[in-house]
User: Which sequence fits this backbone?
């Protein structure tokens, strides 16, 4: 299978060495020919692209999602929130999903592919369309996301909660876990970060080395987005860059990362920071994958979505287990 698992106290590191499928090789080649990463090349161009996408707005749930799942909406603190759940089964868990996009891009069609899959757990998946930089900063948005979580918990049946997010959303759910109050921590059974942006400064020298292999992200525009999101804070602030945060008190963490991703180096630093803590971390590394591959219509994306469904089921089943037994 090309997989390897390493264990160290509360750290589990699983590496998938399987090569990409032919379809995925062609898909990545298409990303390169389409110059997908140009959306983050240079500060000015990054801002122009972000403004254009923000004007077009968030993509609502797809026709497939609406046809196969029960979809509702509500507004919390002026933010539109979608809820997606199975049509004929009661959810066993609530997944609050915070989308990525470098804090500057709205929801895209790809996210609904993952959200639709997660509902199979069965889960109620909560998707907030939160305000974006440069008009909003972490200090504006983090309280709103915590309000969304609290409001959805109060308006529905009592369910264990998993926070999940990709890229910028991966950083946000880690900050939510740290800053949430006692009630959130009581509900929380896990945090899952997909290709998370753990260091907004992109300070590691390996970022420059990795950029030629990353078909989606460029460091110059991403650094600018990190500064806009930080607002009056330093981009290295733990609220913006969770790699610098104190991990104590968090529930079990799962991080999914591909080696063709400029956000990959910060995962090593994050794991080292957690090593002496009592917080369990499972890193799921894929040596052939790119940024947020689990949202894409490729075989590896489908495989990882199935893995995420299984993982959420494990977290729900492990809700009553002692923390030191919940390692993967």
Assistant:
């Amino acid at each position: 299978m090309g997989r390897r698992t390493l264990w160290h106290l509360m750290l589990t590191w699983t590496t998938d060495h399987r090569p990409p499928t032919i379809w995925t090789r062609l898909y990545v080649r298409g990303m390169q020919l389409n110059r997908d990463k140009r959306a983050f090349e240079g500060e000015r161009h990054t801002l122009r692209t972000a403004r254009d996408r923000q004007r077009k707005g968030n993509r609502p749930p797809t026709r497939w999602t609406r046809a196969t799942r029960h979809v509702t909406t509500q507004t919390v603190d002026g933010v539109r929130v979608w809820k997606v759940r199975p049509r004929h089964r009661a959810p066993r868990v609530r997944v609050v999903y915070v989308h990525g996009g470098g804090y500057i891009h709205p929801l895209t069609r790809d996210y609904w592919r993952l959200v639709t899959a997660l509902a199979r757990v069965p889960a109620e998946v909560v998707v907030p369309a939160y305000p974006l930089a440069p008009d909003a900063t972490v200090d504006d948005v983090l309280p709103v996301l915590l309000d969304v979580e609290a409001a959805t918990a109060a308006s529905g049946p009592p369910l264990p909660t998993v926070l999940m997010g990709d890229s910028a959303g991966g950083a946000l759910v880690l900050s939510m876990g740290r800053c949430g109050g006692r009630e959130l921590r009581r509900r929380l059974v896990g945090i899952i970060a997909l290709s998370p942006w753990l260091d907004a400064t992109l300070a590691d020298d390996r970022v420059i080395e990795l950029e030629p292999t990353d078909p989606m992200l460029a460091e110059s525009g991403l650094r600018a987005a990190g500064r806009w999101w930080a607002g009056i804070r330093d981009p290295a602030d733990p609220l913006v860059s969770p790699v610098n945060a104190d991990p104590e008190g968090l529930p079990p963490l799962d991080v999914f990362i591909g080696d063709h991703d400029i956000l990959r180096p910060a995962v090593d630093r994050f794991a080292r920071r957690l090593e002496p803590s009592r917080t369990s971390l499972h890193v799921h590394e894929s040596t052939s994958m790119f940024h947020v591959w689990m949202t894409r219509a490729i075989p590896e994306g489908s495989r990882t979505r199935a893995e995420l469904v299984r993982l959420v089921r494990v977290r729900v089943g492990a809700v009553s287990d002692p923390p030191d037994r919940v390692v993967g």
